[in-house]
Amino acid sequence: MNLLFRLPDARATEQVDRLLTRPGLRIERIVSLGQANPPDFWYDQAEAEFVLLLAGAAKLRFTDERVAHLLRPGDWLDIAPHRRHRVDWTDAATPTVWLALFHR
Amino acid sequence: MNLLFRLPDARATEQVDRLLTRPGLRIERIVSLGQANPPDFWYDQAEAEFVLLLAGAAKLRFTDERVAHLLRPGDWLDIAPHRRHRVDWTDAATPTVWLALFHR
């Protein structure tokens, strides 16, 4: 089982694969290809999210920060519950692969 | 915070960095450089372990399987509690970076 080979086609829409589900824990692999959140859309999640970029490039922004985080492979963040954030940009030229781990 | 740049020097011993600790969840980045478990050593862990190889190469073996898993970047496994396993080999030429997530 590999997260980087034979990626699903994300041209039309982001591709989400659930890897593991346990009480209080959910691990997903997300593949993006140029997608971003609509203007003024913000995630407001009840769970914390540990996110690790595995491939590609993305910009992640928080309401409480002025500048977006440019994420490259190996970059990670732990997003506290209800800390509002959005994806400003993902690379349209190459797939961006995220490991997202939702936890309590 | 990046898991792949400016890696700690693992020539003498494996380098473990704890990224996150929550009740029932612990996330670590482990850097190996040629280390392996001693002959006949087996891990027998009370926790489950989701392990993802981020860089390098390693061989992971289970008592209940005849052949070791050759792990490459992007390969992942979820190891059940008390499923005995060992690291047979890690690449001595280039750092092997593991994301290890211990969960209940």
Summarize the structure in words.
Two copies of one chain form a homodimer. With 104 residues, chain A is an all-beta fold. The first copy, chain A, contains no helices and eight strands. Chain A has strands spanning 15-22, 25-32, 48-55, 58-62, 69-71, 76-79, 85-90, 96-103. A five-stranded antiparallel beta sheet of chain A has the order 1-2-8-3-6, with no helix packed on it. In chain A, strands 5-4-7 form a three-stranded antiparallel beta sheet, with no helix packed on it. In chain A, a hairpin with a 2-residue loop joins strand 1 (15-22) and strand 2. In chain A, 28% of the residues are buried. The A-B interface holds A 1-5, 19-20, 22-25, 27, 48, 50, 52, 54, 72-78, 99, 101, 103-104 and B 1-5, 19-20, 22-25, 27, 48, 50, 52, 54, 72-78, 99, 101, 103-104.
What keyword list fits this structure?
104 residues, 0% helix, homodimer, mainly beta
